[in-house]
Amino acid sequence: MYGTKVCPRCGKKVFEDMDVCYECLFEFSSDEPVVPEEVYEDAETLAEAPIDWSEHMGLRVCTRSVEVTVPVGGSGLTIGRGTSCDVVLHGKAVSRNHARVDCSGDGVVLRDLGARNRTTVAGKRVDEPVRLRVGERFDICDSSFVVCKMGE
């Protein structure tokens, strides 16, 4: 069976050996950051217009039973087992309020909320807030999250 990866631009699943996402034409070999494709009337408008990244940031959520992209938005997301969370994970190892994600510049800030089974980034426990950029991944128990740009 072939391995897969998630495109950080559109969130589509592609084969691991692919260099280009055929959905949005993102080049995986590119070292350029993924940025929203804004349309401006002229160069002066581009220089003056600040980008509100909160409208473009998302999380690709991958669990055993579902794979979905959710927008982070300006108010951020709370992840946990509790029904009041924005992203609810159904697992006994997940805390009621496990982690929090907020937009920050062209990425997100991830905070563990004191969960017993800690949130991890690259296998390391998250003890302090961690800034993640598009394409970076974090894990909560047996669920994976990839920071991505929301499709337009």
Q: Tell me the number of strands.
A: 13
For the CA atoms, what is the radius of gyration? 16 Å
Strand order of the largest sheet: 6-5-7-8-11
Mean pLDDT: 80
> Unreliable segments (pLDDT under 50, ≥5 consecutive)?
32-49
Give the proportion of residues in helices. Answer: under 10%
- Distance between the terminal alpha carbons, to the nearest Å? 31 Å
Query: Into which percentage range does the β-strand content fall?
Result: 35-45%
The run of helices and strands is EEHEEEEEEEEEEE
Basic shape: globular
Biggest pleated sheet: 5 strands, mixed
Count of runs of 4 or more consecutive helical residues: 1
Q: What structural class results from the helix and strand content? A: mainly beta
Quick overview:
This protein is mainly β. It has one helix spanning 43-48; strands at 4-6, 13-15, 57-62, 67-71, 77-80, 87-88, 99-104, 107-112, 120-121, 124-125, 130-133, 137-140, 143-149.
